[in-house]
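Hi all, posting the design record for the shared folder.

TITLE: backbone redesign
STEP: 1 of 1
STRUCTURE INPUT:
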């Protein structure tokens, strides 16, 4: 359990670092191109490890689960990248923050995993922390925030599917099929959104692929070590890392609400992991 928590928190740090790379390419590279290069370069990074065992190592008896994980993951990725381009980093991380709100219910209905009362309390506190950070007013939730929350739902499906796959599938196979499915599907929008990346763009695109691929490996390993209800709450740490990067690199202010919300998130993580 402690190792699973450490891996999941490490994965959130890598996802926040990925967000930094995406932010540097905002207004220069279309979202569709970003998503495609993240998948195709991630697939290339994994290839040496995956093909050491030959094609038999890629054989699976649950292609439908890999497809579900790939489609949901790609949908979450489009939402996440859009949110990063239009929101401060701390708020953009709400795409993953929404996931723990849905994970216990999905895990209960699909995997029949019992959810302890303290986990539900952690979910409630964590969601309260999200509301404190986002501060939704009378004008309601903006379009970028709504898209980020939708991405959180897709991310929850991804995390529960990973938990289901981890019972029979090795980590690298799960990550491979995600990258493979994502590379194929994300190539379709390039017919109307393609631009030729500059050398500078390629450096950042490679960094994004490295951070996100390593983050996926950490996420997959972490979720294989305990129930999604217990570990999913640690996705909330992404907002803390996002706020730190935003403050250091773009002087995005860290408000009292962000600090208070982060403290609630930390307490929620402790309750969920107890």
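Okay, here is what came back for every position:
SEQUENCE:
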């Amino acid at each position: 359990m402690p190792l699973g928590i450490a891996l999941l928190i490490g994965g959130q740090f890598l996802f926040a670092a990925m967000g930094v790379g995406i932010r540097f390419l905002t207004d220069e590279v279309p979202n569709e191109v970003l998503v495609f290069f993240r998948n195709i370069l991630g697939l290339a990074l994994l290839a040496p490890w995956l093909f050491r065992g030959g094609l038999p190592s890629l054989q699976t008896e649950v292609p439908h689960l890999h497809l579900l994980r790939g489609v949901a993951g790609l949908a979450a990725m489009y939402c996440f990248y859009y949110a990063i381009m239009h929101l401060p980093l701390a708020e953009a991380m709400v795409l993953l923050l929404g996931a723990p709100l849905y994970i216990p219910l999905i895990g209960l209905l699909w995997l029949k995993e019992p959810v302890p009362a303290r986990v539900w309390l952690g979910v409630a506190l964590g969601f309260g922390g999200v509301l404190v950070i986002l501060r939704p007013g009378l004008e309601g939730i903006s379009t970028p925030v709504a898209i980020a929350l939708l991405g959180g739902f897709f991310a929850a499906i991804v995390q529960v599917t990973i938990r289901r796959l981890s019972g029979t599938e090795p980590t690298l196979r799960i990550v491979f099929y995600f990258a493979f499915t994502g590379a194929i599907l994300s190539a379709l929008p390039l017919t109307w959104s393609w631009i030729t990346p500059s050398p500078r763009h390629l450096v950042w695109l490679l960094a994004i692929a490295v951070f996100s691929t390593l983050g996926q490996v950490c996420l997959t390993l972490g979720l294989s070590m305990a129930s999604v209800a217990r570990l999913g709450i640690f996705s909330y740490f992404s907002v803390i890392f996002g706020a730190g990067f935003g403050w250091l690199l773009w002087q995005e202010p860290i408000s009292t609400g962000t600090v208070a919300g982060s403290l609630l998130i930390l307490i929620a993580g402790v309750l969920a992991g107890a």
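COMMENT: The chain has a mean pLDDT of 81.
Let me know if anyone wants the other runs.
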